[in-house]
Amino acid sequence: MIEWRSEARASGSRTPRCSSRFLVTLGIAAILLTGFSFAAGAGEAVRPRPGVARNAWDEDIAAKLALEREGAVRAGRDVVLWFPKDSLTDEQAAGIVARLDRGVHAAKLRIGKPGWSVEGDRRVHFYCPATHFISHAPGGNCAFIPLWRMREDESPWLHESLHLLLATRAGDWLALEDSVAMRRMPLWLMEGLADALAMQVCEEEGLAYFSPLLGDRPDQLDSLAADALRNAPSDSVLAMIGERGKLPQLFGPDRVRYAVPFYAGSASFTRYIARRRGYRPLLRAIADFDHENERLWRELGEPLDRVKSEWLASIGLGSQVSFGTALPPQRSMDDMHGDCDHFSWNMTREMDLWRGSVVTVRAGSTPERAPGVRLDERVSVTLAPLPQVRFVVPPGKAPGSAGTWSGLLVFTPPADGIYRVSAGHPVWIDAVVNGVGASSQRFEMQTGCRTIFKSIAFAFRAGEPVILQVSGSSLDTVALLVTRWSD
Ligand SMILES: [Zn+2]
Predict the structure, then answer these.
(1) Which of 296, 108, 104, 277 is nearest to 190 (CA)?
(2) How much distance in Å is there from the Cα of 138 to the middle of ligand 1?
(3) Sequence-distant (≥ 6) Cβ neighbours of residue 164 within 8 angstroms
(4) Fewest beta carbons less than 10 Å away: which of 143, 230, 381, 436?
(5) How far does the centroid of ligand 1 lie from the alpha carbon of residue 164, in Å?
(6) Model confidence over 235-250: pLDDT tens digits?
(7) Separation of 186 CA from ligand 1 center, angstroms?
(8) What mean pLDDT, rounded, does the chain reach?
(9) Which residues pair with 136 in a beta bridge?
(10) How far is the CA of 133 from the centre of ligand 1 (A)?
(11) 177 domain residue, yes or no
């Protein structure tokens, strides 16, 4: 690795290829770069030729030229670092290049592109002007990162490199008309995969992962994603994860409020897929330009929607819908050993219905044979011995010995909303929607109440059948009641 200073100018530099809107700028660039020469003495290498910037912003081109003309440069095996003269010591620059080299090289191997190159140049060029802007890698082999971020190692340099490394010859979303990309580009996959891979490579290489949006703790990504999505300013954020298109608010004044749930959610979802199925389906999908989502569906062998539901359930957002009902905070189990008067929820309606008529049903031992239960109708459910029951998903709590009783019911919600499933004595209840366990939103229990022992709140969508899996009952019948949240 040799550092060159601006006094040494190289000749024969190539004009960076770029989208047509920058041709004028680049025309000037070409003039300025003419005669960019370097008098190579004995043992001296040639100053690296500039990076190839595609889809770059006007200010990128200006900054790039300034660094190429007057800046310092240090090249490694897989990267070239361009920075303002005297802004980094030799030692700092060497340390940064070593770090970048390590990560970029590992990333190339990780994605199966060891020979990646742009116009014959196998290196990623990092341009680091001493100004403030959002790190980005518009295309070609150039990433633009603010100098201070690079110096402090607080930059998403690996994420940006991955955008470049993952680019496909089949097409370039950033080069298209924005109105087309707005509708068709699978932004969730482009951003999510760059992040998931950056985390993976950092972990494998012992590098510090950094993202200005996601914090620096990959092990907290899922909980960050769940929190951010739960508090997202609009349902459209979650809706766009796994879909084609760009969320318009990501490019407006409210950017940060939308960006955190979108980026965290996209990275969490992509990483979930990679952990279950490896990176291959994702890499094949992103290489199949303009068919990315469909390709991913094919590679995974199941609808992306279903995988998304499983992911949401895995981060505690199963049936992630609150329908505007503000639920009270979850109470501690320590507060749940009172009698019927100690429920913190308003259980008046449930208690009234409990005193009314009762319908007797025999629970199914398979989902296909599960009988229906209706809203506001107390049922006395005859259960089956545990070994006879085939659950859709393993019960959330181990159902105990073979001596316990279990069974399945089905409930079809008449409307979107929060529903309570109440039981007369201790049983475990899982709700399963589309083959995926739905996380409960809240639960209440009063161990001293002889009528309703516990009640569990779930968010259900209208018309989507819910399999209620009852397990772990010490009695062969249990009273159940499904009601709407009434507070
Ligand atoms: Zn990105």
Answers:
(1) 296
(2) 9
(3) 118, 124, 137, 139, 140, 141, 142, 143
(4) 230
(5) 10
(6) 788 889 999 999 888 8
(7) 12
(8) 86
(9) 144
(10) 14
(11) yes
Q: What is the pLDDT of residues 189-219, one digit of tens each?
A: 999 999 999 999 999 999 999 987 776 688 8
293: helix, coil or strand? helix
The alpha helices in 34-166, defined as continuous H runs, are 58-70, 90-110, 147-152, 157-166
Question: How many domains is the chain partitioned into structurally?
Answer: 2
Could you tell me which of 119, 134, 150, 107 has the C-alpha nearest to residue 54? 119
- Domain harbouring 433, CATH code: 2.60.120.380
Question: The domain containing residue 348 runs over which residues?
Answer: 323-484
Same domain membership, residue 373 and residue 294: no
Query: How far is the C-alpha of 393 from the C-alpha of 462, rounded, in Å?
Result: 22
164 and 22 belong to one structural domain: yes
Least confident of 7-11, 46-50, 221-225: 7-11
CA distances from 30 to 11, 22, 160, 322, 408 (A): 12, 12, 26, 57, 73
181 Cα: distance to centroid of ligand 1 (angstroms): 15
Position 56 in a domain: yes
Give the type of residue at 296: L
**Residue 290 is assigned to a structural domain of this protein:** yes
Q: Render pLDDT for 339-350 as a digit per residue (tens, 0 to 9).
A: 999 999 999 999
**Where a domain ends, among 300, 331, 363?**
300
pLDDT at 320 over 50: no
CATH of the domain at 91: 1.10.390
Query: 209 and 93 in one domain?
Result: yes
User: pLDDT digit string (tens) for 380-402?
Assistant: 999 999 999 999 888 877 777 77
Question: Position 338: which residue type?
Answer: G
259 & 327 share domain: no
Q: Ligand 1 centroid vs 336 CA: distance in angstroms?
A: 47
Report yes or no on 369 lying in a domain.
yes
State whether 329 and 278 are in the same domain: no
Q: β-strand 442-445 against 417-423: which pairing, if any?
A: unpaired
Tokens of 449: 């109440």
Bridge partners of residue 410, in order along the sequence: 372, 467
The alpha carbon of 121 and the centre of ligand 1 are apart by a number of angstroms equal to: 22
Residues 207 and 271 in one domain: yes
Cα 62 from Cα 100, distance rounded (Å): 24
